[in-house]
Every structure is written in C-alpha cells, then in structure tokens.
Amino acid sequence: MPKMKTRKSVAKRFKRTGSGGFKRAQAYHKHELSKMGQAAGGLAGTVMVDDSDVGRILKALPYNSRRRRPNPAPAAKQEA
After folding, report:
1. What letters, b where the CB count within 10 A reaches 16 and e where it falls short, cover 22-57?
2. Element spanning 56, H or E
3. pTM for the whole structure
4. Contact 24, 16 (CB under 8 A)
5. Which residue segments constitute the domains of the chain, with CATH numbers given?
6. Are 15 and 72 in contact (CB under 8 A)?
C-alpha cells in the first residue's frame, strides 16, 4: 500500500492543539498594517478552526487524525 500524501499547504496553515482541535492564523494580518490602525492588533495571534471545517482539514492531513493511540500502561514491577 503506498503512503498517503499530506497536503503541505494545509500542513503549514494549521497546527494541532493538545486537546485535538486545530488552530489557525487570522486573515488580513500580513501587510499594509499601518493603514488599519488599531484593528491590526485584534488580528494578531491565532484562533480555533470552526467545527464545520475540521473534516476538510483532516482529509488533507491523513496522518493527523483524531484517533490517537492510548499510551500503554506501565508494566507493574514484580517484587522478588
């Protein structure tokens, strides 16, 4: 079975959070910020991706699925 391909443009735009969601940068915060005034400050940082868009992101990132393997339980130490 060949490897699935990740859409690199999507991989660069979205990051996975620890709780399983996706975060993204806000639009209109790349250039000509001097014309925007104080509105530019509100566009700084990241926001969470809407739930309606998560399915499309997961299709484009096949190795970044919601199903995570649970951590194996540590082996119990046997006392001699």
Report:
1. beeeeeeeeeeeeeeeeeeeeeeeeeebeeeebeeb
2. helix 51-60
3. 0.67
4. no
5. 1-29+41-65 (4.10.410.60)
6. no
